[in-house]
Structures are given as C-alpha cells and as structure tokens.
Amino acid sequence: MPGVSQKMLSVTLRSPTRGGLVSRRVEPTVPPRVFCRLTGLGLSLEAALVGLRTRA
Q: Does residue 54 register a pLDDT over 80?
C-alpha cells in the first residue's frame, strides 16, 4: 500500500484481525511475507461501509 509503512499497516490491522474481520497468513520466507484479506464477516460489512463513504 503506497505511503503506508509496514509497521503502521501491521498495527492498524491488529484489531480487525482479532475481531475476525481480517485473516492474516504469514509465509516463512526471509523476510517473512504477510498476506491479509477480509473474512466473510469483513465482507458482510461492505454495504454498510459504502453507505458511510458516500455520506462523508
């Protein structure tokens, strides 16, 4: 993600990961590669988030 440090992205995704909105997979490479994606629960919030974005 351009303009965002790896550290800040990691910190920002911690809470949604604990809440079950984002899944995280780490590949044991050097350096480690981390992949994040929305879970089914995270995807279910898409319509509500679109509504919030269009009002802002």
A: no
21, 39 contact by CB (below 8 A)? yes
pTM attached to this predicted model: 0.68
Residue 31, judged by CB atoms within 10 A of its CB (0-12, 13-18, 19+), counts as exposed
Of the chain, the percentage scoring pLDDT greater than 90 comes to: 48
Q: Please provide the DSSP assignment of 6-34 as one string.
A: HHHHHHHHHHHHHTTSEEEEEE--SSPEE
Alpha carbons 14 and 52: distance in angstroms, whole number: 22
Q: Under DSSP, is residue 46 helix (H, G, I), strand (E, B) or coil?
A: helix
Cβ 9 vs Cβ 1: under 8 Å: yes
Q: Is 55 a residue whose pLDDT tops 80? A: no
